[in-house]
Amino acid sequence: GSEATSEPGQEEEVEDRLKEHMDNLLDKSAKARQAALQSLRLALSSRALSEFLLERRLTLTDSLEKCLKKGKGEEQALAGTVLTLLCLQMGSGPEGEEVFRSLKPLLVSVLTDSTASPSARQSCATALGMCCYIAAADLE
């Protein structure tokens, strides 16, 4: 109940922090990217942010794609988790489907890559399953 009556200033502060975390996903430092992914994971799992994410889903999707492609181990695992949460936030509409469709090939690629860490592969398998369940328009 108290979150619904939060002050507008608090919402802006939360959004500013989220924007900063999203910017940090493009940092050169793997540690900074991992910290940003952990912060995003916490934010996406603790409150509904679909309005905020709706405008920024393409930017976030691109950043997660880079983390999955160029990252290793923990970074890929965190990116898979954040992707799952993003898909949950976007829901079963066209936006969620768009996010899933754009990252599905990359999830499959990490999942089938025998050199990827087990945690990254597990996270991508979970993301693939959850996003497919939530947002896949194609029944197959």
Automatic annotation (TrEMBL):
Q: Which residues form the Interferon-related developmental regulator N-terminal domain?
A: 6-139
Coiled-coil stretches noted in the UniProt entry, renumbered to this chain: none
- Fetch the Gene3D superfamilies from UniProt: Leucine-rich Repeat Variant
Q: Name one Pfam family in it.
A: IFRD
Similarity annotation:
Belongs to the IFRD family.
Which protein is depicted?
A: IFRD2 regulator
Organism for this UniProt entry: Orthonyx spaldingii
Q: Which gene encodes it?
A: Ifrd2
